[in-house]
Amino acid sequence: MTIKQLSLVFYLLLIPLFLLASDSAMKVGFARLQYDGGGDWYNDPEVLPNLAKYMNNILGTQIPTDQSVVRASESKLFDFPFLYLTGHGNIRWSDSEVNSLRQWMLRGGFLYADDDYGMDASFRREIARVFPERELVEIDSRHPLFTSYFDFSAGLPKIHLHDEKPPQAFGIFDDDGRLMLLYTYETNISDGWADADTHGDPWELRETALKFGLNILHYIMTRKA
Q: What percent of the chain has pLDDT over 90?
């Protein structure tokens, strides 16, 4: 598939079937999910713009490089096919937010959640409210996401130490086998998308994180399930 074809596929996915035709749908980029509970959902605001710039440079796409912020309770949630969630602390969704997130994911939305160290227990609690009938299942390097564009067949990269445990990836799938949610734990992939002076990470580590981020989005763009 050529770069132009990939770009076209991406923009078709930016206007999926669950979107109503609107000007905002045509301008949509990446969005960060804001939540209550006390966790710092807002940290490192440059990470999504940096990932968009990297993806535009590598794939020739024209993804908007500003960051949108959305709550699950807002109707504009359904303007975004891709949401990013992170934080160090507690996450709490209202009953209406739980229902909205469930409908959004079942209708085609993809949520990427990255534990920034400290949100694991609350995220698992809240996502179990969204999908009580579905489990977070561990995903290893045999899943096509790991080799969608760059080769991560050796496994999930470790970006930050945290508790020095092995990095893990988990997912929730719909009835057709489509990955609706990716959750990364004990790695902090998205910290590697931050500016160089935010965490002091060397370029090689940040590039690794950006490459895996591109794999996530490339997988969404080209998936058949």
A: 80
